[in-house]
Amino acid sequence: MNLTAVWAIYKFEMQRFFRTLLQSFLSPVLSTSLYFVVFGAAIGSRIQEVEGVSYGAFIVPGLVMLSVITQAISNASFGIYFPKFTGTIYELLSAPVNFLEIVMGYVGAAATKALFIGIVILLTATFFIDLQVAHPVAMVVFLLLTCLSFALLGFIIGIWAGNFEQLQLVPLLIVTPLIFLGGSFYSISMLPPVWQTVTLFNPVVYLISGFRWSFFGLADVPIGWSLLAIAGFTALCIAVIWWIFKTGWRIRS
Amino acid sequence: MSAILSIRDLRKTYDGGFEALKGVTLDIEKGEILALLGPNGAGKTTLISMVCGITTISDGQVTVDGHDIQAEFRAARSLIGLVPQEIALQPFETVLNTVRFSRGLFGKSRDDAHIERVLRKLSLWDKKDTQITALSGGMKRRVLIAKALSHEPRVLFLDEPTAGVDVELRRDMWGMVADLKADGVTIILTTHYIEEAEAIADRVGVINKGELLLVQDKDTLMAQMGKKQIEVQLAETLNAIPPVLSDFGLRLGAGGNSLIYTYDTKGERTGITGLLNAVSNAGLTLRDVQTRQSSLEDIFVDLVAGGTA
């Protein structure tokens, strides 16, 4: 294992993040505050409580997931797409590193950035509501796995993308709708029965439900299912990336 | 001397069936400088890309210092440095960061003294904190070289290193290549500039249409294939070669007042004395005599055109 190389990639990617630290820090704080103002104060005043939890607190796990997933995907996809775009990928391909080390470097950095944003949002939330965490270990595991698995997905998107438009396509057309319809801002028990069934095909439902369970002990789907979903998704992404490097798809001619 | 890079029957066929490389076999000795010449699309970059791991191998085998580039890719690749043809750099990074990154990527522990040496040698030290995007084209090319040298390679590939650079940088680069050779680094460079191969290479390989037409010691090549010409300028103007000179295979120069004689430098008898005597006997008056040696470029053009291959 060429850990020096993993560290080199990781550090290089993180430096990019730290160069724009203010931006990286301010935008999640601002967007979270806006969500709290709009959903927590305006709408929340009419909803009051969801299953015994104040609406302001109820949306926190969903808000964190929304940002973490978006950030993990965009950081990882950009991280690997940019070397492809500038041509510097020649160096990665000619270096004494295997696919796992490249992935560890890029995905590790993207996941770290997403985690950082997630923590910033959680801290911001404490200014608006009284946040309790019922299962702290589960909360950390869910957060880490989400950062990791969606960074893996972002990596795949970055390899697949042939231009900057395609880089935005999957997050915009697929991921954002899935997150919004995944119960970020509502409990799926609030939906009509038919839509409750349909929504179970949305993988993000399992993530948000599990994550919310770690805070309040209440979930839309059994916690086992949530863990299985996130673990399965991570495994699937790793398998796809392994195949990409084995065949050289879109990277080696 | 032993081969540090050994290429056996290397082939590349693309999905569409295009054969970019048709079975190249080549041994490169430790510490030598090999220049690969060939027109655009000849397969030079394909060959380099396959050795470096950027392009997949269709068939054949390559070893670097005894390490197979596929089975033992770590050992093989850590010995190789590559300076690509196209300028490919992350625009918003600083020079120092970019070069440090390369060293780390190749698994070498941080060595600020080495990086400083490399940057100073390439006149980049003053620019170490400058963003790549603010550098000139020539400077960017130097950064690419610094990246390749950052991890102390034993084999260095320079893919058209002086394409589009000014004379000063070209001279600098030739000097740097000589220094690297003195340190025992093996260098393989591709170039369009024949004078570059002539100036710095020990051996010259000519590639065309995916085939290695020839690999030879540069001086031997020049001596073997180099032809010399003598142009005998006359006081008189001729309409045709005088019959007494017909045995020499002469050509009448433009304007009719010179005779051009081509001879082989490897021949034991060049026939120059005989020619000059014959010219004198024919009653012609010599005004001047000039000789000209054919360059590597002439040899190259001949080979690629299929003339002497």
Automatic annotation (TrEMBL), chain A:
Signal peptide: none annotated. The chain crosses the membrane at residues 20-43, 55-82, 102-125, 137-161, 167-188, 200-219, 225-245. It is found in: Cell inner membrane; Membrane. It holds the Pfam family ABC2_membrane. It is a multi-pass membrane protein. The lineage of its organism: Bacteria, Pseudomonadati, Pseudomonadota, Alphaproteobacteria, Rhodobacterales. Keywords: Cell membrane, Membrane, Transmembrane, Transmembrane helix, Transport. Belongs to the ABC-2 integral membrane protein family. This is Transport permease protein. Residues 19-248 form the ABC transmembrane type-2 domain. It comes from Sedimentitalea xiamensis.
TrEMBL record, chain B:
The lineage of its organism: Bacteria, Pseudomonadati, Pseudomonadota, Alphaproteobacteria, Rhodobacterales. It comes from Sedimentitalea xiamensis. PANTHER family: ABC TRANSPORTER ATP-BINDING PROTEIN. Gene3D superfamilies: P-loop containing nucleotide triphosphate hydrolases. SMART domains: AAA. This is ABC transporter ATP-binding protein. InterPro entries: AAA+_ATPase (IPR003593), ABC_transporter-like_ATP-bd (IPR003439), ABC_transporter-like_CS (IPR017871), ABC_transporter_ATP-binding (IPR050763), P-loop_NTPase (IPR027417). Residues 5-234 form the ABC transporter domain. The keyword Transport applies. GO terms for molecular function: ATP binding. It comes from the Bacteria. Keywords: ATP-binding, Nucleotide-binding, Transport. Pfam families: ABC_tran. Coiled coil: none annotated.
